[in-house]
Structures are given as C-alpha cells and as structure tokens.
Amino acid sequence: MSSSFLCPDCDLLLSRMTYARGIRVRCPRCAHVIYPCRNTLNRCRAALLAALILFFPANIIPVLTVEVGFSSQTSTISTGVFTLWREGMPVVAFMVLLFAIIVPFLRLVIAGLALLPPQVLKRRGLLVMRWHHILEDWGMVDIFMLGVLVAIVKLNDFATITVERGFWFLAAMMVMELRVVQLMPVEQLWQRYHKFQVQSQ
C-alpha cells in the first residue's frame, strides 16, 4: 500500500501514519474525518439499517395528494414513474427510477457490504469498495426531495397539496443516508480490506 493518499473531500495529499486506537484524525485543510473514533463503525451501521428500513415505506407509501377542482390524485415515487411513462416521458421516468429508487438502494446495499468484516467478503472486499467509490457521487435523493418541495410551492397557487406520510419517510431516509455518508470511514475500510488481501496471499 502506498505511503500517501488523498483526502476524499479536498484531495490534499496526506501521509499514512499509525495512530492510537480511538483517536479521531481530521484533514488539516478541510477537517474531513480521515480516521474516525472507535464507535463510528457501529453508529454508521445503525444509520445504514435505519435508512434501509425507511427506504421501503418511502417508496411505497403515498408522498403527495394533489387536488384540482373536484379531482384528486395520490402519488408515490413508484407510481410517479409509471405516470411519467404513460404521459409520454420515458426518459424522465427512467431518470426518476434510476436516481430516486435504484441508485439510492444500491448505495445503501454496497455501503452495508463494505461495513461487513473482511472475513465475510474476503477478496471481494476491494471490489465492493470500488463500487462504493463509483456510486458515491450518484446519490440524488436530496435533489429529488428539493424537486418535490419546489413542486409543492409552484402547484400551491392553483391546487391543494397535501403532504402524506411517505414524504416524511422520504425525508427521514434522506437524513439517515446523509448520516451514513458522514460516518462512513472510507479510508479505514480501504486499509482494512487491503491489509486482509495482503495477509491472505
């Protein structure tokens, strides 16, 4: 393993060092946590489990109810995809399906696999970490949430918008996903899987 690495946030070149267990080490430029404290892995796993649990009601339970005149329509994220497809917007429907449902779920699953002990994944651990790196910048639940809020404001002038329970599940899932990103000890996991692969050769 190289004696140097880049800070995941600001790309500052840092030198690898051995620190006492339980010490939190931050990047001197951007204060990103390079080596988290001892309980970070458990807190990250707890946030990840919460996000996975919240993912399903966030996509199944209705998010919004729109009432225009005497007609009303209740929509979930999943039904929104089908509605866009029926309305002749397959590209938009695919984008919503990909970035609001598939990619967030894959990110959570890959993060969960990365947090497993190296003995479980063995040589596949580094592959999982590469996929985690690839998907890291593709999570757009927060952008989708912002789009929902903008739609509520815009439609409120000529329609009655009712926020349903699914909206709050979606908001809670977004918070938990951001918490996972914040707590994920990426550098520590790379080192752990690399060390396991070297020892197993």
TrEMBL record:
InterPro entries: PqiA-like. Keywords: Membrane, Transmembrane, Transmembrane helix. The keyword 4Fe-4S does not apply. Pfam families: PqiA. The chain crosses the membrane at residues 48-71, 91-116, 137-155, 167-186. The keyword Ribonucleoprotein does not apply. This is Inner membrane protein YebS. It comes from Parendozoicomonas haliclonae.
